[in-house]
Amino acid sequence: MGSRVERVRVATGQIPELAARNIERTLAEALGKRGQASLCLAGGTTPRASYEALARSSDLAWSQVSIYFGDERCVPPEHPESNHRMARAALLDRVAVPASRVHRMRGEDADRDAAARDYESLLPPHFDVLVLGIGEDGHTASLFPRSPALVEVNRRVLPVVAPKPPPERLTLTPRALVSDGLTLVLAAGAGKAAAVARALEGAPDVDGCPAQLFRDAVWIVDHDAASELAGAWP
């Protein structure tokens, strides 16, 4: 399918619908070619609104879509901080995805390394669609600046300690996240402007700004998040 490099600046309220159309189109292409598809979800407010838009508009064959997560906080699945709980409320409980196709990270397990290894065994070779956000510090998934996970070359999932609460997390590593499918990075708000500019136009520094790993992804940002970019966008 191949990556589609695209950068789109829109009004804040347009991000969810545009993201949902990108996700739906790419999943439909995969379903048409192989009869199945994979979608890896991010946490965060902007992705949540996109999932809600996807649930409202989509007539996909959800029974053939497998769901994964880019990261998870080490909390029970019903905890307010759980990415799984958010995704379930925004999307998964509103479309016909079989429970057997929803692969959540077991962040609540005491043995986090074992939980990471178990999740690694569930991952497909690549994702048809990967949704990511970006933090004000340039992190994405739970790959924070100067995290040892950024230089991991063998493992695809690792337990990590984040510099913000809740600190204990599981995350996919770059080896699992960088793929040939559609990678969609979403950003909204002036608080993300410096990080977006550094990710897309700053000097190469993945260790300091992990979102630079995805410079060649499809970025959908609002005008505030794009306000510090020097390059011309549509």
Brief summary:
With 234 residues, the chain is of the alpha/beta class.
Task: Write up this protein.
This protein has six helices and nine strands; from the N terminus they run βαβαββααβββαβαβ. It is an alpha/beta fold and 234 residues long. The model is unreliable at 1-5 (pLDDT under 50). 45% of the residues are buried. The chain has one domain (6-222): Rossmann fold.
Count of extended strands? 9
Secondary-structure element order, N to C: EHEHEEHHEEEHEHE
Kindly state the mean pLDDT as a whole number?
A: 94
Helix content: 25-40%
Q: What is the CATH topology assignment?
A: Rossmann fold
Compute the separation of the termini in Å.
24 Å
Strand order of the largest sheet: 1-9-8-5-2-3
Number of domains: 1
CATH classification class: Alpha Beta
Oligomer: single chain
Task: Indicate the structural class.
Answer: alpha/beta
Strand % is 15-25%
Specify the overall morphology.
Answer: globular
CATH architecture classification name: 3-Layer(aba) Sandwich
Major sheet size, sense and barrel closure: 6 strands, parallel
Low-confidence stretches: 1-5
The number of helical runs is 6
The gyration radius over C-alpha positions equals: 16 Å
What structural keywords apply?
single chain, 234 residues, alpha/beta, Rossmann fold, six-stranded parallel beta sheet, three-stranded antiparallel beta sheet, 6 helices, 9 strands, globular, disordered N terminus
